[in-house]
Every structure is written in structure tokens, then in C-alpha cells.
């Protein structure tokens, strides 16, 4: 019997983690690892932490080769019935199993925002998702004779971390958020309040505001808010989260629906799996959700690969996937840490106020934990997530 041929679409955290697991378990397995045409696999955590602030070049953020056959050919579509992959080059390939790990793309401003396209074309308005985005920000800031005024559009984790990094680099930051308490649904009210205090101590904040228009000038940009207020800056960075970036037929806004083993939900026997920012999970109480951060993408890639091995008779059933990976972010000299996925439908329970630690529960079961300057406590709680008997007493 010839070894299985596996196609992994996407060479980021989820794809490379899956490739490593498959190779370790079955060295003779034929693995094609697809990336976008002209793109080397890169570590997305270094886009804002390294490239945008000039600490790293895009080449220094590339991932080491995982050992699988790297195919630099953007995948346009997949035939789920035949497991045929259709790359941009036109060379159709068939596989015994496919792992969809194509990640995400950045949300931008809506089409109803006047002047959006002109600002994007001029480079005064940008997302921060790829090495190219980051290099453009680095170059734009480097052209200025001194510090810049940078407008951060958003209030989530990427917005907070990027605002902190650029502020530390000496730039003047203004944060523009649709929420009056940015991050409250994900972080909990207590931590969000502390983060907001940090932002307001390091720059201007415009809260509870939506963007009506963008005006591009030869030497600056103007953001027009819904109350008519105009905010001027040298550069505006969109940090409104992400959307899944899946090939056809899953290339809508919802991603690839998966079951609790990360198999394709509509056809679990088809040996098609999804992991990382492209995967759409379903929880009976929390609804559909995606998790789009690096460590959890790697955990999902690992889980999907182990499910694939099990389905090919090469390993044990890995059980149900539940998000429990930890993550950290440095924000204005403080460390925000978390584990799991704090869905807006969870109940935030304050375990500690000094340091701040919030446990996010569903039906009295902890599904996530977040903390500020509480890294050891977050790491103690992480293994206890999704276990009902661990809800009453915090770890000592």
C-alpha cells in the first residue's frame, strides 16, 4: 500500500504544526504544504512586534522549513467530493486527506466610508496583517523627520499592542474605537478598564465613535467621526480584527465549519479538516466562533493532524478540541495574558483584582481566563479550562 498523500493548504502556525505532526508519525507520508504565490511562510506575531517598528526585516520573520514539500501556488478552490485542489497555476492535484489552514485576512473599513479607497491607495491608511503591511508602516514612519502621529482604528488586542509598541518608539498615538470600553466583551470589564486607563495615559482616545469619512492629503490623513469631529494624523492603522481566508467553496465570511475533531462538519467522513483562523467552531451554548491567535492556531493544526492520522488508522482519536492555549501581549509596560477563548456569551467572574484575573465561564464551567500582570495565575488556570469541577476554587 502506497503512503498517503496529504495536502495542507496554508503554511502558517496551523499548517506547519500539522506538517510536523504528520511527518513525525508517518515519515513516508507525502505532504504538500501550500503557501500563497510569491510568499514565504512567516510568523505573524512578528508583523507588528518586529517588522512594523523596524526591529526585524520581513526575511527575519520567515518560518523555518518544516520539511514538507513547499508549494508556492495560491489555492483558489477545492472539490470536496474528490479532494482535488485547484491552485492558481492550474495544475490540479488530488489528495487522500486535506487540512485547510489558510488563516485569515484583515477586516478593513466598510465601503460606505467615504475616501477609504483613496487613502488605502496612497498608503496613509493601512491594515497590519502581513509583512508587506508592516514594511509599509515602517517605511512611512521612517520617511518622517521626527515622531509621527499614528491613528489606531480599533480597540482589541492588536490595536492595544500596536498602540503600545509605537508609543514606546516615540510616536504620538490616538486610539479610535467603536466601543466606549474597548475589549470589554473579551477581556472583562475590570481588565478593559485598566487597559483603557493605560491608553488614556499614553495618548488621545476617541470612544464610542464610528468613522464616516477619510480625507487624504499630501502630507497627512484626516479621519472624520460620526459626530463631525476630525482627527488628524500622519498614518492610520486599521485594527478591526480578521475574517477567514478560505478557498472556494468556503470563501464566504463564515470560514470552514468543523466538528469537535476539526473535521469538515457537513461531511466528517470526507477526510477534510480545518484549523486555525479559517476554522469555524460550534458550541451548543456559545454559538459559532473562531480563534485567531498564533499558539491556538498551532494547537488546532496539531489536533487536526492527529484526527487525520486516526482516520487513516495511524493513531488514536485525539478527542474533542477545546481552546486552551495561552497568549501574552505587552501593553504600555504591563502584560496582558490569556488562555482559551473568552466568548461574549461567557460570564466574566473576577477571581483577583490585584493582579487582575478574570475567569470566563459558561454554565459554571471555565472556558477562558484573562489577566493583567498575572501570567503565573493564567498559566495555572489554563489546564483547568473546560473541566466543570475546577470552577469553585482558584489555583493557589
Automatic annotation (TrEMBL):
Keywords: FAD, Flavoprotein, Oxidoreductase. It comes from the Bacteria. Residues 6-301 form the FAD/NAD(P)-binding domain. It is an enzyme of class 1 (oxidoreductase). The keyword Membrane does not apply. One of its GO terms (molecular function) is oxidoreductase activity. Its EC number is 1.-.-.-. PANTHER family: APOPTOSIS-INDUCING FACTOR 1, RIESKE DOMAIN-CONTAINING PROTEIN-RELATED. This is FAD/NAD(P)-binding oxidoreductase. It comes from Nesterenkonia aerolata. The lineage of its organism: Bacteria, Bacillati, Actinomycetota, Actinomycetes, Micrococcales.
Amino acid at each position: 500500500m502506497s503512503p498517503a498523500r496529504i495536502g495542507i493548504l496554508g503554511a502558517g502556525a496551523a499548517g506547519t504544526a500539522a506538517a510536523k505532526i504528520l511527518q513525525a508519525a508517518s515519515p513516508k507520508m507525502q505532504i504538500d504544504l501550500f503557501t500563497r504565490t510569491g510568499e514565504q511562510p512567516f510568523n505573524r506575531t512578528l508583523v507588528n512586534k518586529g517588522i512594523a517598528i523596524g526591529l526585524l526585516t520581513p526575511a527575519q520573520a520567515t518560518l523555518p522549513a518544516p520539511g514538507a514539500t513547499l508549494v508556492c501556488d495560491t489555492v483558489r478552490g477545492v472539490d470536496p467530493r474528490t479532494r482535488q485542489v485547484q491552485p492558481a497555476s492550474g495544475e490540479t492535484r488530488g489528495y487522500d486527506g486535506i487540512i485547510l489552514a489558510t488563516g485569515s485576512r484583515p477586516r478593513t473599513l466598510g465601503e460606505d466610508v467615504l475616501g477609504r479607497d483613496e487613502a488605502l491607495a496612497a498608503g496613509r491608511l493601512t491594515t497590519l496583517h502581513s509583512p508587506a503591511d508592516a514594511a509599509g508602516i515602517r517605511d512611512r514612519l521612517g520617511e518622517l523627520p521626527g515622531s509621527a502621529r499614528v491613528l489606531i482604528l480599533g480597540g482589541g488586542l492588536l490595536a492595544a499592542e500596536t498602540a503600545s509598541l509605537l508609543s514606546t518608539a516615540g510616536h504620538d498615538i490616538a486610539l479610535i474605537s467603536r466601543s466606549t470600553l474597548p475589549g470589554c466583551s473579551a477581556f472583562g470589564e475590570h481588565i478593559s478598564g485598566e487597559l483603557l486607563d493605560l491608553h488614556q495615559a499614553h495618548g488621545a482616545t476617541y470612544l464610542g465613535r464610528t468613522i464616516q469619512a477619510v480625507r487624504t492629503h499630501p502630507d497627512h490623513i484626516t479621519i472624520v467621526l460620526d459626530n463631525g469631529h476630525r482627527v488628524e494624523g500622519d498614518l492610520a492603522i486599521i485594527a478591526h480584527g480578521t475574517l477567514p481566508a478560505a478557498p472556494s467553496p468556503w470563501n464566504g465570511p463564515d470560514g470552514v465549519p468543523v466538528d469537535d475533531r476539526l473535521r469538515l462538519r457537513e461531511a466528517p467522513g470526507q477526510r477534510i479538516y480545518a484549523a486555525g483562523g479559517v476554522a469555524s467552531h460550534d458550541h451548543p451554548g456559545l454559538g459559532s466562533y473562531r480563534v485567531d491567535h498564533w499558539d491556538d492556531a498551532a494547537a488546532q493544526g496539531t489536533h487536526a493532524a492527529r484526527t487525520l492520522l486516526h482516520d487513516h488508522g495511524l493513531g488514536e482519536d485525539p478527542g474533542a478540541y477545546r481552546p486552551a492555549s495561552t497568549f501574552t501581549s505587552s501593553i504600555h509596560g504591563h502584560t496582558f495574558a490569556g488562555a482559551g477563548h473568552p466568548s461574549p456569551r461567557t460570564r466574566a467572574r473576577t477571581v483577583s483584582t490585584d493582579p487582575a484575573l478574570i475567569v470566563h465561564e459558561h454554565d459554571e464551567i471555565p472556558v477562558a481566563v484573562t489577566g493583567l500582570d498575572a501570567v503565573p495565575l493564567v498559566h495555572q488556570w489554563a489546564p483547568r479550562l473546560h473541566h466543570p469541577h475546577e470552577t469553585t476554587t482558584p489555583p493557589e
